[in-house]
Amino acid sequence: MAPVEIAGPSARISFAILLCVPLINLMDLMNPLIRRIAAVSLAGLLLGALAVHSQTPSAGPAAASTTTPPNGQNAATGRAALNIVVLDPAHGGTDPGARGSAGIREADIVLELTAQVRHGLETQGFQILQTRSSNENPSFDDRSALANSQTGAIFVSLHVSSTGLSGTVRVYTMPEMPLPPTTGGLIPWDQAQASYLPLSRKLGDAVQGELTQRFKGSPMNVQSAYVRQLRTTAAPAIVVELSSVAMEDKTDLDRMLPGVADAIVRGIVTFRPSYVTPGVPGTAPGAKP
Amino acid sequence: MNPKWRLGIAIGLVVTVLAAAIYFPILKRRVKRQAQVQQKSEEQARLELVQSLNAASNEPKIKAKLFWAADAQYSDLVANTVELPLSNDPVLRSKQVLNTLLAGPVDSELRTLPPEAALLAFYILPDGTAVADFSEAMANSVPSGVQSEQLAVDSITRTLEANVPQVRRLRILIHGQAVETLAGHLDLTGTFPVSTKLVPPSSAPAGTPTTK
User: Fold this and answer.
1) What is the pLDDT of residue B28?
2) Of the candidates B143, B151, B186, which has its C-beta nearest A226's C-beta?
3) Smallest CA–CA distance from A91 into chain B, residue
4) Does B146 contact A170 at a Cβ distance shorter than 8 Å?
5) Taking residues A172-188, what's their average pLDDT?
6) Which residues of chain A make contact with B150, given a CB cutoff of 8 A?
7) Which residues of A touch B181 (CB under 8 A)?
8) Residues with Cβ < 8 Å from A142, sequence gap 6 or more?
């Protein structure tokens, strides 16, 4: 018979409680001294299981609505350099995103752009994760959770707008957010981005700088916007938005994609040395000055 | 198949078809009625606007600052001065400026909010948090994208900041509901900062939420 693996602290506690039920029944047959020793041992076993549970970090919104804080107070172990890029082609599935009169759909264009960015980053030695790779629409929290469960990751969300000067590209980060109070080593899930804002801006400026060199009329610096996707992401996180689906001819937009992909790759390579993270997912971003 | 079973299935089918024939017209009538109610509430909002403007027509005209797009590319917002007979009441005043903002500038390319959208309700909480409830057209018709959605909200917050100093922050609802995003990008789950200026107590809003 194959051994049964008890995975996860909650499962371990449930297993311990299940074991206790027949043992308590057996106690009725024991003499009082042995019964007392057995009761103390059982209490110790349960307390031990609870202690293990409280020390295990949360892994995303499904597990708990909190994430490990990025202030480094509880994270102690070794440091790792930036090596994972989470690419987020926005929308998908039943949500096509912005749509142009010529039939251009944001959800399709960003998937093409993601493939090009992925190729460029892989040649630079980065490990790539994608929030979607086909016509599906994961929730905002599921997309954030993918980045939040990694060590040394950044998050790049790709969009195409329905407005703006055609042929320009803008990079966005969240505006200033109040730093959430850390309780028991955890921060609220919905304020996960707060501690990463300085690094997000640094990454945003690096990518925007590259884009502005290639796409005239694009802003010089990263912009601020209350983007829902960025708020719950516990990693340096940016949105890159191209203008626009309003183009008459899709080939004009297609021609932009290699340049945009190359600029994003170069921006991330420029940012890479300034980001050193602790060895625990979601913990202390250590930006070098 | 047993003839009894066959008869039973046939009767069952006839009953189902009859029930559907009776129920579907009723369902259709209900859907129609619901659509009329929704249309009425938006018309009511427009009517309230006209009434509020009439009510304030006795007030002296004040130079109000309204923020629309600076150009058709939505590169930024620009302040436009419009003379309006604004009320002294902060809730009524907010409704007046927001409805004028919704009506849009002379050049329709510079509008930041969809023309079909209507302000259904507006109130100010004692702590200076304003709640603006817009019709569904606000979410369905605003151009989708980070740039356009942020510009739409900025035009509302900057117009309130310039004309209603009692408003400190803004919460946006769509048809009475809290929604996650405006049109797929901008976060509507929290409040947007409007003004951090301190307001003298004499001009503070009423102590209880109002829905004038």
Assistant:
1) 85
2) B186
3) B184
4) yes
5) 85
6) 225-226
7) 228
8) A61, A131
Whether residues B144 and A172 touch (CB distance < 8 A) is answered with no
Name the token pair of A281: 């997912």
- Which one of A94, A157, A163 would you mutate to disrupt binding with B, by most B Cβ within 10 Å of its Cβ? A163
- Cβ separation B144–A140 shorter than 8 A: no
pLDDT digits (tens, 9 = 90+) for A84-106: 999 999 999 999 999 998 899 99
Which CA distances in Å does A137 have to A60, A90, A141?
Answer: 18, 8, 11
Searching chain B, which residue's CA lies closest to the CA of residue A166? B73
Distance from CA of A9 to the nearest CA of B (A): 33
Answer for the pair A284, A72: CB distance below 8 angstroms, yes or no.
yes
Choose the mutation target among A161, A173, A216 for the interface with B, i.e. most B CBs under 10 Å: A161
pLDDT of residue B210: 34
For chain B (212 residues), the mean pLDDT of every run of 10, in chain order, is 85 89 86 68 56 63 95 93 94 97 93 96 97 97 96 97 96 97 96 74 34 32
Which of A160, A191, A226 to substitute to test the interface with B, most B CBs within 10 Å? A226
Domain limits at B147?
A: 56-203
Residue B181 within a domain: yes
Chain A residues within 8 A of B70 when measuring between CB atoms: none
**Domain contains B91:** yes
pLDDT at A288: 46
Based on the fold, state whether residues A108 and A35 are members of the same structural domain. Answer: no
Inter-chain contact B187–A244, Cβ cutoff 8 Å? Answer: no
Closest of A135, A127, A234, A237 to residue A189, by C-alpha: A234
Domain end residue (candidates: A55, A75, A92) = A55
Mean pLDDT of A164-188: 88
- Taking the C-alpha atoms of residue A119 and residue A214, their distance in angstroms, rounded to an integer, is 19
User: Shortest CB distance from A91 goes to which of B143, B184, B186?
Assistant: B184
Q: Is the residue at B154 inside a domain?
A: yes
Strand-pairing partners, residue A67, are A187
A253 at B interface, C-beta within 8 A: no
Other Cβ atoms less than 10 A from the Cβ of A246: the count is: 19
Residue A141: closest CA among chain B residues belongs to which residue?
A: B180
Number of domains in chain A: 2
Q: Cα B88 vs. chain centroid, distance in angstroms?
A: 22
* DSSP string of A49-76, one letter each residue: HHHHHHHSPP-STTT-SEE--TTSSS--
Is B172 within the bounds of a domain?
yes
> A261: domain range?
66-287
Q: Is the pLDDT of residue A81 over 70?
A: yes
Both tokens of A123, joined, read: 């040649």
Q: Which two tokens stand for residue B136?
A: 């569904």
